[in-house]
Amino acid sequence: MASDDLILITGATGFLGSATAVEAIQAGLAHRLLLMVRAPNPRQALERLWIQLKQIGASDADLAQLSSQQVLCAELPELAGVALDPRLEQVSTVIHCAALATFADHPALGKTNIDGTLALAALMEGRPRLRRFLYIGTAMACGSHSAADNSIPEMLSLPLAQEHHLVPYTRSKAIGERRLREHFPDLPLVVLRPSIVVGHTRLGCTPSQSIFWVFMVWQKLGVLTTSLDDKIDVVPVDWCARAILHLALKETLAQPVFHLSAGIQSSRSFRQLDLALAAGGRKGVYGRDYERIEVGQIDQLIPRIKVRIPDCNPRLLAKALKLYGEFARLNYVFSNRNLLAEGVASAPPLTEYIGLCATSTRNISIANQMKWDFK
User: Which of 118, 139, 197, 262 fits a 20 to 30 Å CA distance from 237?
Assistant: First the structure.
């Protein structure tokens, strides 16, 4: 990468995109960043960025390195207004983190995750310096019928049929990835698929409570839809951001697809997660056995939800648990062989920072935590 090449990051005010921007700033790359932000002008874009980046660990000194020169005001998929921006001619690397990440059936999923992705590819295709276009997908784009032994390889082909996906979000990411390959065969595309991103190794769940609340709910209710000894593949956002930046800047990559996952090395069982909470001094429901139930039995938990999680709409929570219960039953571990081969260190297991996640959410209601995943 030349000294004046730029790194375009979309989704810099989102969870993973902001973590990646902070990682780049702290690596001395602030002057090379071009951050796409939805805002009417650079001043408001910078204000949005400062709030989000500080939330995810940026210092005042980090933020001071950003100016209007690092901001591209635009909104996916409407990019025609920035097509002639001369800074795009300097972009050598695109990190496309922007997405509507929700487990609700949101009407804008297709517009943002599919149309927006194709619009960005069209904007950048053929730019003279472009050498890498990183598409941040999701490991769960593999669908719900992908491997008999629950071990998911870093494969190119993904199922697109609706019946293979538990939520529209994972299908939209699979379609976006497929269409990039079909419509832009000359794009220097590399696909990164994070597994379940939960918390931050230093900040816990302060930046985002996404998904962590599900672990706490299972524990409060004393039930699981899977075995205590089944594993779950979880990674922290700051490790994910470091892996993204490593792959973005590496001179050559041996493969076109990478799982940003815990893999067999760092995935942990529900029993290990529960014991880690107990070892951290969390009292009450931790460190005990769970009742294993079927997803179809979750509605029977509504009376228990009313007593143990009184701050929630019990029927809404039961509906959410059915969805997460189906994910848990898959018991997937995502192979990260390609990733490790490129020199990325294994992810820290959730057991190492789960106590911090619990402490950081102690005074936040389950109802408010759920809003991160049901926009």
Answer: 118
Residue 50 carries which side chain, given as an amino acid letter? W
Q: How far is 173 from 293, CA to CA, in rounded Å?
A: 30
Residue 146: predicted pLDDT: 61
**What are 298-316's pLDDT values in tens digits?**
999 999 999 999 999 999 9
What does the domain layout of the chain look like in residue ranges?
A: 6-194
Q: Return all residues near 123 (Cβ < 8 A) that are at least 6 apart.
A: 79, 82, 83, 88
Say whether pLDDT at 282 is over 80: no
Angle between helices 168-183 and 116-124 in degrees, nearest 10: 30
- Closest among 324, 158, 169, 151 to 233, alpha carbons compared: 151
Q: Which amino acid is located at 317 in the chain?
A: L
| Spatial CA neighbour of 191 closest among 94, 330, 88 | 94
pLDDT in tens, 185-243: 999 999 999 999 999 999 999 999 999 999 999 999 999 999 999 999 999 999 999 99
* Integer Cα distance of 207 and 94 in angstroms: 24
Residue from 60, 20, 68, 9 nearest 207 by CA: 20
Cα angle 75, 77, 80 (rounded to 5 degrees) comes to 80
d(CA 187, CA 133): 7
Q: Is the pLDDT reported for residue 2 higher than 80? A: no
Superfamily in which the 6-194 domain is placed by CATH: NAD(P)-binding Rossmann-like Domain (3.40.50.720)
Cβ-contact 79, 153 below 8 angstroms: no
Alpha-carbon gap, residue 66 to 29, rounded angstroms: 11
Whole-angstrom CA distances from 228 to 128, 261, 328 are 53, 20, 11
**Pairwise CA distance, residues 78 & 115, whole Å:** 9
